[in-house]
Amino acid sequence: MPLYNKKAREILSIKHTLSITITSFNYGQYLEQCIESALKHTTDQIEILVLDNASTDKTTEVLNKYQSNRNIFIIKNTENLGEFQNWINGINLATGDYICHLCADDYFTETFINESLNAIKQHSPDVIFSKVIYRNEQTKTLNKYPHPLYRDWDAAAPQPVSPTVDDVVEV
């Protein structure tokens, strides 16, 4: 059973354009960078849901720094539900028209959120995705990969793979 912070009723009653769900299990060493990358872009259009999956490291200490932030909704599971169920809980709690998921060891680039919100305004897409950049702990770029839905890294326009996705936009 998850425990919610005091802002639960207030946040769940507001409709957002974008919900950012951050799932964590013992990723306290990365969590602050992840949250801060989302906070750099926070507007009233965005909510951030951090779902802690019963961590035993310094995750709680990091989350305590954000208790008073009105854009962050913290959910602490009393037992580890597994990554998938924790992620599903984030989807179920999200109020946004769009949901962006991050694991706690991921972070946004400086322009990702603004580019995503602009794509939403311009195209009203079903799916937005981006390229993935793998970096080591010294932030050295190790490799760049396209999102799995994207067929051609260098193509001029996104090409959906699935016939059920009508509108795909890459940012």
Characterize the structure shown:
With 171 residues, the protein is of the alpha/beta class. It contains 5 helices and 9 strands, in the order E-H-E-H-E-H-E-H-E-H-E-E-E-E. The chain has helices at 8-12, 28-39, 59-64, 83-93, 112-123; strands at residues 2-4, 16-24, 46-52, 72-77, 96-103, 127-129, 132-135, 141-145, 168-170. The strands form 3 sheets. Strands 1-4-3-2-5 form a 5-stranded mixed sheet, sandwiched between helices. The chain is globular.
Average pLDDT, to the nearest integer? 77
Strand content: 25-35%
Low-pLDDT sequence parts:
151-168
Shape category? globular
List the quaternary state of the chains.
Answer: single chain
Q: Mind summarizing the main beta sheet? A: 5 strands, mixed
Distance between the termini: 36 Å
Instruction: Specify the structural class.
Output: alpha/beta
**Helical fraction:** 25-40%
Q: Which series of helices and strands comes N to C?
A: EHEHEHEHEHEEEE
* Overall strand count: 9
What is the helix tally? 5
What order do the strands of the largest sheet run in, or round the barrel if closed? 1-4-3-2-5
Radius of gyration: 16 Å
Element layout with pairings:
Layout: E1 2-4, H1 8-12, E2 16-24, H2 28-39, E3 46-52, H3 59-64, E4 72-77, H4 83-93, E5 96-103, H5 112-123, E6 127-129, E7 132-135, E8 141-145, E9 168-170
Parallel strand pairs: 2-3, 2-5, 3-4, 6-9
Antiparallel strand pairs: 1-4, 7-8
